[in-house]
Amino acid sequence: MLCARPAKPLLPLDIKEAIDTALAYDLASRAQVSALDIDPILPRRLTDRVSGKHQSRPSISVWKGDITTIRDCTAIVDAANSQMLGCFIPGHKCIDNAIHASAGPGLREACYALMEEQGYLEAEGQAKVTPGYNLNSADVSRISTGIFGFPSAEACSIAVRTVLEWFSHHRDSTITDVVFDVFSESDLNLYRHCLSELSYDDGKSPGVVFPAGEQHIVKLYDSPSFKKYGFRCLYDVFGFQSWPSEQARWSYFMNHLIIVRDWPQQELYSNLWRTISTRFAGDAGDDRYFVRTSNADGLFIRHGFPVSRVSTPQGHYAQLQCIRKYRENAVFDAAPYIAAAEPHLDPITQHLPADFAVPVCPYCSSDLVLCVRGGSYFNDHPFRQKEREYREFCERALESSVSKVVILEIGVGMSTPSVLRWHNEDLVEESEGRIELVRVGRDAAGFCPFDLMEQGYGVGIQGDIRDILAAIMGCPFDQDSCKRMYS
């Protein structure tokens, strides 16, 4: 609502104070980084090394992340439009929206006052400076950028060159550090490469080689046979019924399962298991933790977590089931079906031949589907026992008056909140402080209700999961990331 609301009429003071309080809570819950802890690619260069009063270049670095979470900086720069009033489209993922959402309505009011006094739109390349309000930075410099969708590589070159040229003519500047904040991995590589080449021109080795790109598993929704269905991600298959043939449906299932089967090991899961297994080592160690996940990919088990300590109430891609589910045991290991179909998949179209004999339920000859909760057909029988064991674990935790129990909720968004989020919140409230909630993730996945935080029952930490877990668990993931977090 604040995003779409104009600057006039001004908000009543009590409402503004309530918004400021909420934004202060929000900022405190987000993982933050100090600008002083971001390692520079180009170090500061002084022209008078004795007095240190003049410089030909400040320290220059690049960082990928939320610009509103950078601390220890005088100002951040906003890519604005000529109206200088911020973005008015709710949910639009632009830097203008991110800055205004974190700063609060005071920023738009200040921008409106400046533009009303000026009386005309801001020329491209010109800037306005306002206070930062609820931001970490004291000020916000807003540049009228003009064209949208400017080529990234050219923009990178212009930005770096402009900064260096400005400092070459302002050697008495008190600005000692410049951080280029980027949104995407590709932009991060662009700026790193550009700045590293400048470092090499200084007579220094670049030190780090940055790849032009990374290898990714081919996405099904970009393949010739499946792109036409409009799939944007693997999740889109659930509820889709417009298959032209059973061979087409089975082709998708097989490719889907092969991707999940061949998904590479993930450092986050490996380090999480290493930390848990070390912390809870001993004969009774397994009784002190339990994993309950809405993911059906089996990655916890593949990374070492015992099957006995993992509950997957939403199902498991490693199994197929009869769509009729009239028999509880009509659930089958998917591996033999994958092995039978994989040699027949066309490497280009990823499609099975038209005469491929599609498997059916051996009991009733009905269709087989993924054993994942995608509708009323889901057969949850194979997962009930682990759910019972999880409930018993929670009951023991509630009955205990000695041990402190923590729910570490990682990356649980609002797709299916009734599976994990609401259940976890109910457990915490029921325990009256014996169980505490630590909620980690981006946006809603890192948000903890205010009432739980005020009672000291929970905390939400918004940001990159990998970096947050590094800080929480004693830096098993990345020492540099941990050093930057909460320093």
UniProtKB/TrEMBL annotation:
Pfam families: Macro
Domain (Macro): residue spans on this chain: 47-199
Gene3D superfamilies with a match to the protein in the record: Leucine Aminopeptidase, subunit E, domain 1
Record has Transcription regulation as a keyword: no
UniProt entry keywords in alphabetical sequence: Glycosidase, Hydrolase, Metal-binding, Zinc
GO MF entries: hydrolase activity, acting on glycosyl bonds; metal ion binding
InterPro entries reported for this sequence: DHS-like_NAD/FAD-binding_dom (IPR029035), Macro_dom (IPR002589), Macro_dom-like (IPR043472)
Cofactor(s) listed: Zn(2+)
Descriptive protein name: A1pp-domain-containing protein
